[in-house]
Amino acid sequence: MSQEKIPDIVGKPLTRKLTHSELEERIRGFLGRHSLCVLATSCENIPRATPLEYRSRDMVLYMMGDPGTKLHNIRSNPQVSVGVFDETFARSRNWLDVAGLQITGTATLPEVGESGYEITSALFGFSGELPSQWIGSVIRVDPLKIELLDIALKQEGYAARQVWEKLTEKKE
């Protein structure tokens, strides 16, 4: 670990939360500025973490997965976790550049003709269907909970860790 001085603001305890809509806006912006993630799946208590390219629309992630363990795992257990981080800190070594998302959600594997498939095709720049020679599957991740860690939020007086949870309709 580096012996660099940790700025006082990093250790400063702040609890102020962004509003739900402000947090959603920041998360959408973060997702839009990045395109690599690590998708964590599991089957029979055996975890698997796979680096993948993604695209996002609103808070939903879309990926193109080649055949393999991750697809088997999703079919067996659709509960997934996705990590997205900003690589800026690796280059800058500035603590205020530490930022990332931890997403807990549900994965599905949309087929040709389903909206998730068409959205993925468009987001990855294909017109119509994905290339016929591609033998993988589209992966859609709908978030239930997103944890944003952004040390720079402390400069604005907010807690560095903000938690977004999907709002559920109240039953009456």
Describe the structure.
By secondary structure, the protein is of the alpha+beta class. It has a single domain (16-164), classed as Electron Transport, Fmn-binding Protein, Chain A (Pnp Oxidase, Chain A, Roll), CATH 2.30.110.10. It has 5 helices and 7 strands; from the N terminus they run ααβββαβαβαββ. It has helices at 8-11, 20-33, 69-76, 88-92, 115-123; strands spanning 36-43, 46-57, 60-65, 79-85, 99-108, 137-150, 161-165. It has a 6-stranded antiparallel beta barrel with strand order 1-2-3-6-5-4. A hairpin with a 2-residue loop joins β2 and β3 (60-65). The longest helix is centred in the N-terminal third of the chain and has 14 residues, at 20-33. It is elongated, with a radius of gyration of 18 Å. The model has no long low-confidence stretch (mean pLDDT 88).
